[in-house]
Design goal:
With about 170 residues, this protein is mainly α. The chain has a single domain, classed as Chitosanase, subunit A, domain 1 (Up-down Bundle). The protein has a two-stranded antiparallel sheet with strand order 1-2. Helix 1 packs across helix 3, helix 4 packs across helix 6 and helix 6 runs antiparallel to helix 7.
Length: about 170
């Protein structure tokens, strides 16, 4: 299992990508701050949300329940976490499983990152190749959905280097 420093590095990566407050009419999430959307959390005052509150939400609702802490390769862990947050856990899990299969594995693609998926991810001989296959799935997701006006930024986000992991 990965320690708290891994969460801090991954959440710093996500916060950098997500940015501050936004209420863009072309964003399907609607009103958003630190990547936390009014659509997902209708009870929250999004404009008043603090970074510490966002970190708590990320840890409680994304990092722990979707086993981000169990992915050992730090760049993949950061990108998987970012994808769970930005696209959703089901698709993130499916893309991770498809990436394993594209790099020689044989997983059922059901979107559930359970022990079999985590073992396949963590025992791959080529974690960098697995990361690239995963990122290709994420980019494909964004292209398939179009997201007029957002595509360039979403693709840029999908392949961003997690500089927060340097020295982590």
């Amino acid at each position: 299992m990965v320690d708290r420093d891994a969460f801090e590095a991954a959440v710093a990566f996500v916060l950098r990508l997500e940015g501050g407050y936004s209420d863009s009419p072309i964003d399907p999430g609607g009103e958003t701050k630190f990547g936390i959307s009014k659509r997902q959390y209708p009870h929250l005052d999004i404009r008043a949300l603090t970074e510490d509150e966002a970190r708590g939400i990320y840890r409680r609702d994304y990092w722990l329940p979707y086993y981000c802490d169990r992915i050992e390769y730090a760049p993949l862990r950061a990108h998987y976490f970012s994808t769970v947050v930005n696209i959703g856990p089901g698709d993130a899990g499916r893309y991770l499983q498809r990436a394993v299969n594209a790099t020689g594995g044989c997983l059922t693609v059901d979107g559930i990152v359970g022990p079999v998926t985590r073992d396949a991810v963590n025992t791959t001989a080529e974690p960098g190749l697995l990361l690239n296959a995963f990122l290709a799935q994420v980019v494909e997701h964004h292209i398939a959905r179009g997201y007029d006006g957002l595509l360039k930024g979403l693709v840029r986000r999908a392949v961003a280097f997690p500089k927060e992991l340097v020295g982590a």
